[in-house]
Amino acid sequence: MMFVEVLYPPGALTADQRHVLGDRLVTDVMQAGDSGAPEAVIDAGRSLCHVLFRETTDWYTAGHALAPGTPPPYLIRVTVPENWRAEMGPHLVKAFTKVLADIDQQPSRLYDEPACWIHVLGLPDGVAGTMGRPLGEADLVRIITKPHRDAPRSPSDLPPGTGLDPTCGMTVPFEHADATLDYDGTRYAFCNSGCYDVFVEDHQIAVPHPQ
User: Fold this and answer.
1) d(Cα 204, Cα 198) in Å, to the nearest integer?
2) DSSP strand pairing (133-134 vs 64-65)
3) In sequence order, what are the residues at sequence separation of 6 or more whose Cβ sits closer than 8 angstroms to the Cβ of residue 137?
4) In 10 A of CB 101, how many CB atoms?
């Protein structure tokens, strides 16, 4: 789940630029890459991401209204589950800055001056919801990973030194795994604690902490 709000002065973004941002602020962040994650899981994750544009009536900097012709400032406010914020924050700042720079008329200024601020905000479990009920991190992980859990990949034929995350389907190097677990004769590698917790809970495994 990721809600992205893009705030900008009147007329600073054209319809075409908003279209590019609306697409890339999600797709540039959520890519399968070489992880081996099923495309259906990537699509399910993207379906929980929303981008909203807000053209502000007034924008003041240093106590003064922006002068006509001033290169526009931007504010991107991103809301994610609290448990994801620390890990996602640095990546979102870099990725979103690059996307904005690619559509701005003076891209270098986004790296040379504070022309764009990106706020990554965290929502604690249970304070947001949909479908008539509050949702926590485990609920979101289940929604996103349902395509893989309904038709899981085989853990065989993986590259040496890697394991399958049985929750989301990613191929995870054991040395970089957030957690590993031996279950039913197979050693699994989990990309994050959320996937680990869902697997342990769904299989009723009596393992109190990742090992």
Assistant:
1) 10
2) unpaired
3) 81, 83, 84, 125, 194, 197
4) 16
What distance in Å separates the CA atoms of residue 192 and residue 80, rounded to the nearest whole number?
15
Domain residues of the chain, as ranges?
Answer: 2-130, 152-202
Instruction: Note the CATH number of domain 2-130.
Output: 3.30.429.10
Q: Is the pLDDT of residue 209 over 90?
A: no
181-202 pLDDT, tens digit per residue, is 999 999 999 998 999 999 999 9
Does this model's pTM top 0.70? yes
User: Which regions of the chain does DSSP assign to beta strands (E)?
Assistant: 2-8, 49-55, 60-61, 64-65, 74-81, 116-123, 129-130, 133-134, 162-164, 171-173, 179-183, 186-190
Torsion angle of the four alpha carbons 15, 72, 101, 119, in this order, in degrees rounded to the nearest 10:
-100
> Is residue 96 classed as helix, strand or coil in its secondary structure?
helix
Q: If you write DSSP's letter for every residue of 141-182 in order, what string do you get?
A: HHHHHHHHHHSPPPS-SPPTTEEE-TTT--EEEGGG-SEEEE
Quick one: average pLDDT of 6-11?
A: 96
**Burial category of 64 from C-beta neighbours within 10 Å (exposed 0-12, middle 13-18, buried 19 and up):** exposed
pLDDT at 81: 93
Strand partners, 92: none
